[in-house]
Design brief:
about 170 residues; about 0% strand
Amino acid sequence: MNLVMVILRIIHIFGGIFWLGIMWYNVLFFLPRVKTFGQERGRIMQMLSGPPLPQYLTLAGAGTALSGILMFWYASAGLNKAWLATPTGVVLAIAGLLGIYVVVEGLIVQRPTAMRMAELGRRAALAGGPPNPVVTEEMQKLSSRLERTAYRYAYVLALSAIGMAAFRYV
């Protein structure tokens, strides 16, 4: 038994379950319902985009991707071209690249957007009263961006999970 691979697989599976589960919970249940709250939507989205959820999602995504990269390296015998050309290698590579895409875009787009939204919310709360129209407009744009990327990530992560679940059988 290869203990390192067992540990990497546990990290990969549990991180992936958490990551994919949170994304699908958000797009299937949370986001459709939060829209019904009208003006309170911004405050609710601010609470969601604030700590600790972004940190947990970043950790789950990065841990899943890093453990997946290490397992891929091991399974491919150091990126052996013959193995990479097999149907198994191709499906696993595509599935892995989809997951890595979400991690990278999440760090470059989603995380800074959520952090900016949380900062605007904190400033508005410290100022007291409702935020000015310019801030409100920016928060609405940020909220829409977060929502669009959440839906995209959920679908891309689902494709990645399907590929990883099926790669041994192609």
